[in-house]
Amino acid sequence: MTIDIDTHIYAAADNHQYRTDGLLVANPNGTHPIHELIEKAEHKWDTMLKRQSRSLQEAVLEYKRRYGRLPPKGFDHWWDYVQANNVMLPDEYDQIDRDLAHFWAISPKQLRAAQAAHEAHKETYTIGKNRHGYIDILKTSFHENTNHDLYLDGAFQMMEVLEPIEEFIPPFRAVFSPHDGPNLLSNWQMKEEARKAVAQGKYLDLNHLPSLENVGWFTACPPTSPARKGPPRTGNQSRLPPNLAIPNRNRTFIHSHIKAMDPCLHPSIVDTHGEFLPHPIGPPLPDIVFAPQFSYSSSLLHGDIRPATPFNWIEDLGENDLTWDQKEATEEGRQGRLLWRGSNTGVYCSDEERCYQSQRQRLVALSENRTGTVALLREPPATSRTSRLWKETRRIAADDHAHWNVTQVSRSTIDDSMMDVHFSGSPMQCDKEMCDELDQKFDWRGSMSLKEASRYKYVMDVDGNGWSSRFKRLITSNAMVLKSSVYPEWFTERIVPWVHYVPVQNDYSDLLDIMAFFRGGVNGDAGHDELARKIADAGKVWSQTMWRREDVTAYMFRLMLEYARLMSNNRAEMSYGALV
Question: 63 and 93 in contact (C-beta within 8 Å)?
Fold first, then answer.
């Protein structure tokens, strides 16, 4: 598929293209693009760290500059918590503003009515301040056959995050979905109307909304986006072959992960990810377009509000936390393979579902397909030993045309030397016939302990029924994490790809090229072990300094202050009015 989108023109003969859809297109005359991606990412991270506010006054000014309004009431208490708990990146909360922006176009009265009506929506729970001033479970609405205790465990964990600062949170009621994924489809037309109303200082009337166009999943996309400019969806999209492996013909890599997650820019995502596959055209428009619902994960096509999730928490891996050198000594071979183990979640498999197009099935099929050859992007050994040597030989490489090339490798060697990616356990979420088919098709393995998994230098994080929730554990394990997802999380813009982890496209077309760059080819030659180790180390430091319980609480503190102001009768009085 060719994306109909403007791209930047090469500024020089050896420059790579940085497309506005978040992908870099490698220039055959340039150096290996991952060198450049790492270099630019490190500069971005350094700049982000240096520009953070260092006083309450600076934080208020930065807030006003970014969002055009005063901070919420309680902002000073939030700042005190940030300072007392050494919470870094105090200015990087843009995700909250994006999640709540369209609600500013609804009057508090109508917004509270929509929220109250949504409390009766099945498969939700509501938390908020009780009459004693404590955060509590105020209401539940579950089907009788659901696991109430499991669902409420999420509520208790959310309340535990808020407990240290509950005295500073104004009264509120918030509806949460207990499921892994989102369920409120967004609407671009409505958000555009909301944006105009906010700019004009007006409110939209939820009782007299304009007629809304329904184009399925792409209702959430601008009319000028690649998703909307393509042919209309009919629901008869052809199935992809079971051993789907899209070649990276244009040699593209991610330079903006959040853009690479966007189905509006990459329409093929709706045909290759379990979040969208059950409804080929798209779900019907929700009855309450502006229902403020919190969900544990949300895609860029959904309007669910993202909290900072405290689930599957770890402080550290302790005795299982092998160092990089220890991993090298214990893994089969000195170069290391990419590890992934998990269940076949992501989509329910039946005769009607496009099961094999889902993200986990495609990942395992890519590893276990042993027929034919695959083209790998490789560097000449002379320019790929260390980052220092690369910089010293960059000019020489340009003169000698010793940049990167593509070599053919037998697929039968990939699984043995570069990949250890398999399903574990037995098939689930499938009809009996499909379960039997999946059991025969894939090489199912036993479960792997954390101690066994810690032997691997390279680990994969991929979505399941929602976000995988294992990223915290993986990034703290001294391994370099490769991450593929369609769910931007609360920390997506507080972490930098190519510094703390390596982003992978949803179609995995760049996955083998990434592995060939870091761990080397089939024989481990011409790799960049030192760069992989640097990313692994940086990821763990980020996890232990910026993804602590205090950081989760700080995010939820700020989110609930913003949310309480939106729901208040007088939003102006609920703003922080410090004179600066």
Answer: no
Q: List b or e across 94-108, with b for residues whose CB sees 16 or more CB atoms inside 10 angstroms.
A: ebbeebbebbbbbeb
pLDDT of 488 higher than 60: yes
Dist. CA 529–CA 216, nearest whole Å = 45
CB contact set of 210 (below 8 Å; sequence gap of 6+):
189, 193
Question: For position 5, what pLDDT does the model report?
Answer: 33
- pLDDT at residue 29, rounded to an integer: 85
Instruction: Give which of 213, 225, 292 is closest to 259, Cα–Cα.
Output: 225
Pairwise CA distance, residues 163 & 485, whole Å: 30
- Give the span between the Cα atoms of 294 and 490, in whole angstroms: 12
Domain ranges in the chain are: 318-548
Write the CB contacts of 354 (distance below 8 Å, at least 6 apart in sequence): 239, 240, 271, 277, 280, 347
* Distance from C-alpha of 290 to C-alpha of 107, rounded to nearest angstrom: 11
Q: Are 504 and 485 in contact (CB under 8 A)?
A: no
- Output the DSSP codes for 154-166: HHHHHHHHHGGGG
74: left (phi over 0), alpha (psi -120 to 50) or beta: left
Q: What is the mean pLDDT of residues 368-385?
A: 77
Distances (CA, A) of 192 to 20, 102, 154, 444: 21, 9, 33, 47
Q: What's the CA gap between 535 and 479, in Å, rounded?
A: 8
CA–CA separation, 15 and 11 (whole Å): 6
Q: Which are the contacts of 168, defined by CB distance < 8 A and separation ≥ 6?
A: 74, 77, 78, 557, 561
3-state secondary structure of 335: coil
509: helix, strand or coil: coil
Q: 411-437 pLDDT, tens per residue? A: 888 777 899 999 999 999 999 999 999
Contact 356, 239 (CB under 8 A): yes
1.20.1090, 3.40.1360, 2.60.40, 3.40.50: which CATH number matches 318-548? Answer: 3.40.50
53-90: pLDDT as tens digits: 999 999 999 999 999 999 999 999 999 999 999 999 99
**In 10 A of CB 253, how many CB atoms?**
29
Asked whether 476 and 540 are in contact (CB, 8 A), the reply is yes
pLDDT of residue 387: 45
Neighbouring CB atoms inside 10 A of 371's CB total: 8
| Residue 497, φ and ψ in degrees, nearest 5 | -60, 145
Predicted pLDDT at 138: 97
Cα gap 62→512, rounded to integer Å: 41
Give the contacts of 443 (CB within 8 A, at least 6 positions apart). Answer: 368, 422, 423
3-state SS class at 449: coil
**End-to-end Cα separation, the chain, in angstroms:** 52
